[in-house]
């Protein structure tokens, strides 16, 4: 899953969970059943999980371009910079 796919999955998850929460609340209120509200919301959570958790092909529309193995030798890994600390005065 690429970066744009992660963003899309997050947006889908938030939208679907909010929509199912509203539908569950309205259905539970109109039917007067707390149990029905919870069942509808639980079904929405399960459906949202099935849509957003697997790595579906539409989440990978912008694949990352990795550095070719032949290019690795031409671009060495940067070395950490050593800081020059001033000596502390001891009393």
UniProtKB/TrEMBL annotation:
The keyword Transmembrane applies. It is a multi-pass membrane protein. One of its GO terms (biological process) is signal peptide processing. Coiled coil: none annotated. Residues 70-91 are annotated as: Disordered. Pfam families: SPC12. GO terms for cellular component: signal peptidase complex. Keywords: Endoplasmic reticulum, Membrane, Transmembrane, Transmembrane helix. It comes from the Eukaryota. The keyword Endoplasmic reticulum applies. The chain crosses the membrane at residues 12-32, 38-59. Residues 82-91 have a biased composition (Basic residues). It is found in: Endoplasmic reticulum membrane. PANTHER family: MICROSOMAL SIGNAL PEPTIDASE 12 KDA SUBUNIT, SIGNAL PEPTIDASE COMPLEX SUBUNIT 1. Component of the signal peptidase complex (SPC) which catalyzes the cleavage of N-terminal signal sequences from nascent proteins as they are translocated into the lumen of the endoplasmic reticulum. Dispensable for SPC enzymatic activity. Belongs to the SPCS1 family. This is Signal peptidase complex subunit 1. It comes from Vitis vinifera. The lineage of its organism: Eukaryota, Viridiplantae, Streptophyta, Embryophyta, Tracheophyta.
């Amino acid at each position: 899953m690429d970066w744009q796919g992660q963003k899309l999955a997050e947006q889908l998850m938030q939208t679907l969970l909010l929509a199912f929460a509203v539908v569950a609340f309205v259905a539970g209120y109109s039917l007067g059943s707390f149990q029905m509200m919870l069942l509808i919301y639980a079904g929405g959570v399960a459906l949202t999980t099935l849509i957003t958790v697997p790595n579906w092909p539409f989440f990978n529309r912008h694949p990352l371009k990795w550095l070719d193995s032949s290019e690795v030798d031409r671009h060495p890994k940067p070395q950490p910079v050593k800081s020059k600390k001033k000596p502390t005065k001891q009393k």
